[in-house]
Amino acid sequence: MEVLVASAIGVLTAAGIYMILRLRTFPVVVGMSLLSYAVNVFLFATGRLVINQPPILREGVTSYTDPIPQALVLTAIVISFGMTAVVVMLALGAFIEAGNDRIDLEQEEDGR
Amino acid sequence: MEHWIIAPVLIPAMLAPLIVLWMRYDLVTQRVASILGMSALVVLAIVLMTSASMNPPEVYRLGNWEPPYGIVLVLDRLSALMLLLTSILGLVIVLYAIGSGWDKRGWHFHSLMQFQMMGINGAFLTGDAFNLFVFFEVLLIASYGLMIHGGGRARLKSGVQYVVYNLAGSTLFLFALGTIYATAGTLNMADLAVKVAQMPVEQTALIKVGAALLMVVFAVKAALVPLQFWLPATYTNAPGPVAALFAIMTKVGTYAIVRVYTLIFPITGTTGTLAHDILLPAAFLTLAIGMIGIFGARDLGRTVAYAVIGSVGTMMLGFAQFTQGATSAGLYYMVHSTLVAAAMFLIADLVRERRGRWGLGYTDAPLMKNHGLMAGMFFVGAIAMAGMPPLSGFLGKLMILDATRGQWALWATVLVTSLIAIVGYARAGSQVFWRSYAVEAEEDELPPGPKDASAPGLAFTATGILLAGSVALTVLAGPASNWLQGTAAQLFTPSQYIDAVLAGAEERAQEAAKVGAHEHGHMEVSEEMQAEDGHGGDTGVADPHAADGQPAGQTDTHSETGQDAPAAAH
């Protein structure tokens, strides 16, 4: 299972990095989402991978899984979801204003 | 005093939704509320700063959870200083935005400003690494809104770049935090400092990776070379007052570097000179590229944006030494450069508003309104920014040079780049302000003056306040640098910070036990947490701390007592 999770994180990260280096906004947004999936799984795995264990210690429970990464990953999911929405709106706004979805600036926009 | 520590986060957090929901269609009430809120923050910051300079670091435990389980806010001298700087800048920028009419050019300027203040203040106050990430996101999402305030093609396009760059940075931040949590098993900064210090040196490889990743994240925020690419286009295309506000944003990254690498990964600790080794070459390059950028830029906005990069390089040369003297010099330079960089962005905006279709480019343009006043302000600002006597930039650079005696490469770089900056500013000033006298223009071709300035006097006053701040920093250099030396001394005795957060749990637990039954619920929780900490290693299933070979019996004093107290309560 460790191999599976680790390679999933690796593949997601690699694909995400490739996508955010593209020149158009849509692949960049998709790449950002892939990266955030990768980091969410990574965060989840920082508490070590455990199967079928409760995240809270109760009477009679001797083994458990670390609950903190689960709380962290919830926060991270909410934030990355909101941020993706923001970047989609911005990209749309820029597309409507500028008439193209290129992510780089032209000479005169760049002030050069 | 204790509860006031959270007020710098709470006041803007409550005011912002009020402005959106209640004062939405009435700009006048919005302006009044915004000014009142910012003034309250200034007063509060002064009170907190007085308290911080007389007491050891103070801690606010959110929901009264015991650290390291709960989130804490910590007020020490450094965070108090940053709070004061932020609130003054916030007030001035709101005044400027009202005076220049910038707040009319789009929706929700004032509420976004309040959210921005909430994020920045929270980032300066928090004592928890994950909470730092959350406040970073709060300040970033507000800055995305402010960055594209007013709209327009170039602004939206550079806004997209800014957002994507920072999102990538945030993702990296999470990777770094995950690595650190996996290794140390905690994200509370004080607890992290204790845990990292106890790690055997041969097992620090993974935590070093985490530390280096964090450095990259903070370098993105602080615009250190080679991660500065987002800054020039963003700052040039952002609305003037927002660019001025962003002068504090690079300092959030700087603050985080100073905080994390003096507290958690000190140069004397198990991670060694890692931070120094990365930061010093980056600081050299940042300074050089920033100052050469001033010389090479073809418009005033870019000149000032590169000056910000250069000033980050200068202060980082101080911070990268990780000595008490150089850090206090760096802090002085940081205060100076925030005020002056913000003033320069405001001046650039005043010029842009009055120069009409000529914009900020270094081309010949006819005389504009208020020409002399703006030229004078630019002159003062450029002197301060380039580090010429007699203003605070000169003193700041002098302090940094004084603290790094014997490092000839550093002296040479600072002095040569200052010369380049002076030449760059001279060129900018003569092109924008002097050449205009020689330009003959038709009557109907004259610059039209500001578009919708409701009170240009207020805009000039706001800019003047920032320059006056630089003058005040020069006049009061003695007391200021004494105070900053105290701040640096506090930073280099991290035990003060750690004790403030982690110690005292014992007494509090006993007190709670005495108080009796109604505290029971809370104590039970900490017992549960404690039990988890204690038994996790035995089961060998999930406790990351045990897996990383930390010495057994390393339980901290504060958590041991967590177990004793409830027993007393029963």
From TrEMBL, chain A:
Keywords: Cell membrane, Membrane, Transmembrane, Transmembrane helix. The chain crosses the membrane at residues 6-21, 28-51, 71-96. Signal peptide: none annotated. It comes from the Bacteria. It comes from Thioclava nitratireducens. This is Na+/H+ antiporter subunit C. Its main location: membrane. It is a multi-pass membrane protein. The keyword Zinc does not apply. Belongs to the CPA3 antiporters (TC 2.A.63) subunit C family. It is found in: Cell membrane.
